[in-house]
Amino acid sequence: MYRYPKRRRRAEQEARGRAGARVRGAARYPSERQARRQTAAAARSPGPAALPPRVALLLRRARVARLATADPRGQPYAVPVCFAFDGGSIVSVIDAKPKRLAPRRLRRIRNIALNPRVALLVDAYHETWTRLWYVLVLGRAELVEPGTPRHAPAIRLLRRKYRQYRTMPLDEALVIDIVPQRVAAWFARRPARARPR
């Protein structure tokens, strides 16, 4: 088996290190202190993003999304969620559907508590590919406790959108509130322009 000369191998390893690839001996994950620094930086990041009207309309109408969180080591975790959009933030509730763990022990909740940066993906698939679209929201999530001023309006908004929530006991449920900071949208077909009269 052919082996590179040592000098060439060393040069390639250094190049990979400069390009950001992991080299032997490098830390695999950020430390807890680094993760907390990154979390603090996320808290100081820019305010809510202005959403185009078409994107805001899709967020109001869509029935399900995928919420992605990450732990302090950067391990991603994604779950489907029901959500509602009030024009400024996106809310989701830890509802009464059967779960294996208590709400506060769910991985998405633990991840948000340590790392509030999240991604929410809303999309539509159709066999006619000219009807495909998606909206990706990158933002900062906050856990809203029952009894706080933002809790009751979030529950009302979700109950207006989903009739199943109207009979669920959600007054003591934890709410996830996401403020969009960056939004990316893609549409297979551009909306038709209004013709001049």
Annotation keywords:
5 helices; 7-stranded antiparallel sheet; globular; 197 residues; Pnp Oxidase, Chain A; alpha+beta
Distance between the termini: 74 Å
State the secondary-structure class: alpha+beta
Largest sheet: 7 strands, antiparallel
Name the poorly predicted regions: 19-30, 41-46
CATH class: Mainly Beta
The CATH homologous superfamily is named: Electron Transport, Fmn-binding Protein, Chain A
Q: Percent helix among the residues?
A: 25-40%
CATH architecture: Roll
Annotation field: number of helices: 5
Give a summary of the structure in a few sentences.
The chain is α+β, with helices and mostly antiparallel strands and 197 residues long. It has helices at 6-18, 32-43, 53-61, 107-114, 151-161; strands at 65-70, 76-81, 84-85, 90-93, 117-124, 133-144, 175-187.
Account of the 3D structure:
The protein contains five helices and seven strands; from the N terminus they run αααββββαββαβ. It has a single domain, classed as Pnp Oxidase, Chain A (Roll), CATH 2.30.110.10. The longest helix has 13 residues, at 6-18. It has helices spanning 6-18, 32-43, 53-61, 107-114, 151-161, and strands spanning 65-70, 76-81, 84-85, 90-93, 117-124, 133-144, 175-187. It is globular, with a radius of gyration of 22 Å. It has 197 residues and is α+β, with helices and mostly antiparallel strands.
